[in-house]
Amino acid sequence: MAVAAAVAAVGACSSPVTVPAGPYAADPVCGEVLQALPGELAGGEERSIGSQSIAGWGEPAITLRCGVDVPGPSTERCITVESGDTSVDWLALEADDDMVPEHARRENGSWTFITYGRVPAVEVVVPTERGGDQPTAVLVDLASAVERTTPERSCIGTDDL
């Protein structure tokens, strides 16, 4: 019992995830998204947060920000992630892309994904050391929460033009 209490106390002392809130973080849908998020992601436990509409898991933290700027039409690589009956489109951004926020630019690299065609938009940053060979796997685990946002557009391929 004392060991469990000590472990809980150490976990409670970890520093909160501090990334800036998105400009639309107060959107009520972001609250719905956050309530539906998993308590564990890619083997990392959910961490305390320091901003509105933010979530983080593990160390270094995989972060999610709800209420970021909605991307317009783009030539960025767009991927569709399906989980059960859920389908969510994401822009997969390269590390040097102008759309990658400053907090996501890491020395060791990371993958940045922003929902495409959904309002409010959601951003997920997966540090290289946490993403392994399949950084998009976390998007599958987040799909049921992110589907609470409103789809307004979807990815199209060159065959659709």
UniProtKB/TrEMBL annotation:
InterPro entries: DUF3515. Pfam families: DUF3515. This is DUF3515 family protein. It comes from Oceanitalea stevensii.
